[in-house]
Predict the structure.
Amino acid sequence: LKRNILIKKKEIYFLKFKNFNQFKITDIYFSKSDENNLLIFKSKNIIFEYWIEQDLLIPPWKTYWFQLKDNFLLKLKHNILNELLNDSIKKAGNLHLLCKSLKLSTPSFYGLYKNKIKMISVKKLKRLLDYSNIYYTKINNKIEFTKKGSKISIKNIKFPICLDNENGASILGAIVSDGCIYVDKKARNVIRTKYSTSEEESISDFINNINEIYGDVRIQREIVRNCHIIRIGSSIIGNTLLKAGAILGHKAKNNGYVPWLVKLGSKNLKVNYLKSAFSDEASIYIGKKSYSSYIIMSRYVHLKDITKQQQSKLDKLEKHMLIRKFPTGHINKSISIKKAKSLLGLNLDSNEFLDLITNLLLGEAEILNELGIETRVWHRSLNKTSLGNYSICCDLFINKNESLMRFYKEIGFDLSSKQEKLIKIINNINLGNGIKVL
C-alpha cells in the first residue's frame, strides 16, 4: 500500500503493474512455502505471491529459483556453496549444531560439507540463506545449472525467469499453435513441453526464444516424416508458461483461451503472440485481383458431452463425409458445416451444436479487432478422427485491403516464406491504388 502497488477503492483491492490494467483482487489469504510466510493475492485464477520475509511481491509472469519445488537441485557457481556452508558452520559452532538450527538431519549436509556432493536442493539452500540472513534474490545470478538425474536441464539459468516480453509472447504463441504442454504420466506426472513443425526456421526461432528466456536449455530433437520435433524435459518451462495462461493438454479437446498474459498485456505482447501464432497456423492466398487475397487461420474444437439426439444426427452425417487417408494409417472424415446443416434441415443461423467456436480463435479475433484489423470467423467443417472424436473446424479470415495493410504494418510473420507472400499481397494492393510498391 505504501509503495502504491496495492490500491484500495471502496473496500476492493487492486494490484498495479506497468503495462497492465489494474488486477482486481478477488481473494487474499496466507500460505506457507517451507519456512516462508506468503500472502497470496488472487485475481480470479491469476495468483500473485508476496513473500513476507523477503519483502518481495512476485507476479505470475516471473519465477524465482526459490519458487521451485523444494527437491529441485541447483549447482551454484564457483565456490559460493562451500563459502556459505562454512560461514554457517562457523556461526553455529559445528555441523551438527547448524543442522539442528536448520531443522535438518546432519547426514543430509555431510556430503556437502565434505565436498562430495556439488548440488544443493532448493529447500536446503533457502534454510542456509535464512540462517545467514541473506536475501534469496542475492543468489539469482549465481546459479550455474539445474539438474534432474544425470542430465543437466538448464545451464546458466536466468532467474528471475520473466515472460513479460517479446520472447515470452512468441513462445506462448507457438505453444498454443504447433507446440503443446503435457503431463508425462510415465515420469511421475512431470510437466513437459513439445514443439513440432516442418519449418526449420520456426524450430530455430522457438529454440532461440526459449534460450533467451530460460538459459541454455537441454533440448531433444528428432525428425519424423520431414517434421522436426523438439522435446523439453525440464518442468520449469512448462510450469512457468502455465502460470502465464498457456493451455495444458490437447488444445482442441480442452477448448482453452488466449493466454491471459497476452490478453491483459501490452500491445507489444499481443503483436508478438499473434506473429508467432500466425506464422505457425495461418495460410495465405494471393488472388489475381488486389481485392481477392486473404489470410486464413484455422483452429479446431472437440464436441464434448454429446447427447443421444446429437449422436443420432452425427451418425446420419457420417454417411456423407469425405474420407481422407494418411500414410500413417489414420483416417479422417469431414463434411462442410453448410452441407451438414442442409442434410439435417437446419437454418445456417441456427444455434445448434454445430455452431461451437473455439475460444482460442475468438480471443485472437478480439485482439486483432483491438489492433484495428477486421476479421471474420466462421465454421468450415465437421470432422471425425480415427479415435472417434468429433470436432468443428473454424476459420478466421482477414481479407479487407485496409486490414491486410494494417496486419503487415503491425504484425507480419516470423516465417520468411509467409512474410514474402504477405509482401506480394501488399504490393498488389499498392499497385491497385497507384502507390509505389515495396
Summary: The chain has 15 helices and 24 strands.
